[in-house]
């Protein structure tokens, strides 16, 4: 009995452990099957979504992982633009495809492919992707970066909202704390636009703000709104509520007074006007100041270039007055220096992205609908197939043999300054004028040398963007009659 009982105990223990074991096996099997099915479904969905894309050849690019694509490269190799360019160089290609999340990012460094995208297939590539950043959308030593940035800030504030100062300003005409905060915030936003934020490609990660970009952008935006919004609100009130009869004095007035003819009411809401003003302020400040700082740095290292520029200025403007807008058409060498700065030292590695609205073929490769296209500004401007000694600052390469006007734009995309096609920059004239005026005025007003402790100005680029690694500091000695300066 006892034996039997024991046997039966053993047998029941065995049955229990067999049940647990088989249950364990079953659960492993079911988990494995579930994982397998998810992978198969993922693959099938991918194949279905991609349709026959697989049969078509995408531009070459790095191998990508499921779901994240190449985002691990972007996160591990900051700044992304440097990794993208060196990857293209290693692959010896002028067009590449990098999958980020579900998005095909197409990078381009060839002028021919650029023209194909922005001119011949402009209708397909004229849209823009929605990114998080766009949604939030001394007499003596002179630190030229500050001077150049505030010059641009002054011009654009005057044009947009007819204001040089938000506060008291400085007695010498310099920026007050309010203007410093305003301009710094504009540059902060510009620094993070198209920074290849992870959440642009895996939108469900946006709430975590993994790279911290959103917080920085929102803070900068708040700073700008603090100054812009009261001016805009007051002006809207003046025109639309009080209906005062005044002369239109700036772009803000123009935007407020635009009307929808079909219903006779204002075309733009207050938020739309605020967004437009911000966009135009952002669009105007960085390119001219960046190009001018680089041009001056290069020229201080090459005194012959400085001398040639000053000779032109003295011939066209003389020494008894400042440079005026009417002089610019005769300042071809100055414009060549600015154009050379745009070629060699663009403000950003890539153009503002475009998105394709249909499947198409470019340069023999298939480009799927929804791809984000990034044309490389450095890739075009420093392309050795296009330019002799591409890394040398040689403004004379832009002078036309027949002496005709040098212009800062280049629709053939030998360099990408204002871009081209229907999404090309609408501010070519203003942008060219601001850049040439700034560079000409600094060269005309001062004799530039390097500080005595220096042998040459370092032309090293910053690690994370394309600015000079250290803001240019030059010794600026007034070279015009004293009475000319107070009007500065
Ligand atoms: C030297 C100065 C400037 C340069 C080099 C420059 C360059 C550019 C570039 C490369 C683009 C992108 C084009 C593309 O997507 O293919 C652009 C767009 C734009 N620029 Fe400029 N820009 C300058 C000044 C200005 C100024 C002064 C304004 C107006 C106040 C302005 C307004 C705009 C606007 C509104 C866009 C967006 C156009 C669109 O999305 O359709 N820019 N600019």
From TrEMBL:
Q: Which domain of life is it from?
A: Eukaryota
Q: Which GO terms describe its cellular component?
A: membrane
Q: Give membrane topology per the record.
A: Single-pass membrane protein
Pfam short name (any one)? p450
Alphabetically ordered keywords of this record: Heme, Iron, Membrane, Metal-binding, Monooxygenase, Oxidoreductase, Transmembrane, Transmembrane helix
A biological-process GO annotation: isoquinoline alkaloid biosynthetic process
- TM ranges are 20-45
Output this protein's name: Cytochrome P450
> What is the scientific name of the source organism?
Aquilegia coerulea (Rocky mountain columbine)
Tell me yes or no: is Heme among this UniProt entry's keywords. Answer: yes
User: Belongs to which family?
Assistant: Belongs to the cytochrome P450 family.
Location of this chain's protein in the cell: Membrane
Nucleotide-binding in keyword set: no
- Extract the PANTHER family matched here: CYTOCHROME P450 98A9, OS09G0441700 PROTEIN
Where along this sequence does the record place binding of heme?
A: 425
**Per the entry, which co-factors are needed?**
heme
Named from the GO MF annotations, one term is: heme binding
């Amino acid at each position: 009995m006892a034996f039997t009982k024991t046997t039966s105990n053993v047998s029941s223990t065995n049955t229990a452990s067999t049940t647990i074991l088989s249950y364990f096996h079953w659960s492993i099997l079911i988990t494995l099957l579930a994982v397998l099915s998810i992978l198969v479904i993922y693959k099938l969905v991918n194949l279905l979504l991609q349709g026959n894309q697989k049969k078509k050849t995408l531009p070459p690019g790095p191998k990508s992982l499921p779901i994240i694509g190449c985002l691990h490269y972007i996160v591990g190799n900051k700044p992304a633009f440097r990794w993208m360019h060196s990857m293209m160089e290693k692959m010896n290609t002028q067009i590449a495809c990098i999958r980020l999340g579900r998005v095909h990012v197409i990078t381009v460094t060839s002028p021919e492919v650029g023209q194909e995208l922005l001119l011949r297939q402009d209708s397909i590539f004229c849209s823009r992707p929605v990114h998080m950043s766009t949604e939030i959308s001394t007499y003596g030593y002179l630190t030229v970066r500050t001077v150049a940035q505030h010059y641009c800030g002054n011009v654009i504030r005057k044009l947009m909202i007819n204001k040089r100062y938000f506060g008291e300003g400085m007695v010498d005409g310099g920026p007050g704390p309010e203007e410093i905060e305003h301009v710094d915030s504009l540059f902060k936003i510009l620094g993070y636009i198209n920074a290849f934020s992870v959440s642009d490609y895996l939108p469900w990660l946006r709430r975590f703000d993994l790279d911290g970009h959103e917080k920085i952008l929102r803070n900068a935006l708040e700073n700008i709104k603090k100054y812009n919004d009261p001016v805009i609100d007051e002006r809207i009130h003046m025109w639309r509520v009080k209906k005062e009869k005044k002369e239109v004095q700036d772009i803000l007035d123009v935007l407020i007074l635009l009307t929808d003819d079909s219903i006779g009411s204002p075309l733009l809401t207050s938020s739309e006007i605020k967004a437009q003003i911000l966009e135009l302020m952002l669009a105007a400040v960085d390119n001219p100041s960046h190009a001018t700082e680089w041009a001056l740095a290069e020229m201080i290292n090459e005194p012959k270039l400085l001398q040639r520029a000053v000779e032109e200025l003295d011939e066209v403007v003389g020494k008894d007055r400042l440079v005026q807008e009417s002089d610019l058409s005769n300042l071809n060498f100055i414009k060549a220096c600015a154009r050379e700065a745009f070629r060699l030292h663009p403000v950003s590695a890539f153009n503002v992205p475009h998105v394709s609205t249909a499947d198409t073929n470019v340069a023999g490769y298939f480009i799927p609908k929804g791809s984000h296209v990034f044309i490389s500004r450095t890739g075009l401007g420093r392309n050795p197939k296009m330019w002799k000694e591409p890394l040398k600052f040689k403004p004379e390469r832009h002078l036309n043999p027949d002496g005709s006007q040098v212009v800062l734009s280049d629709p053939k995309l030998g360099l990408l300054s204002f871009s081209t096609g229907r999404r090309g920059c609408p501010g070519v004239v203003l942008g060219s004028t601001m850049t040439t005026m700034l560079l000409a005025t600094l060269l005309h007003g001062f004799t530039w040398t390097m500080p005595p402790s220096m042998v040459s100005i370092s032309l090293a680029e910053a690690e994370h963007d394309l600015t000079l690694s250290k803001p240019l500091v030059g010794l600026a000695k007034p070279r015009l009659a004293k009475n000319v300066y107070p009007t500065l």
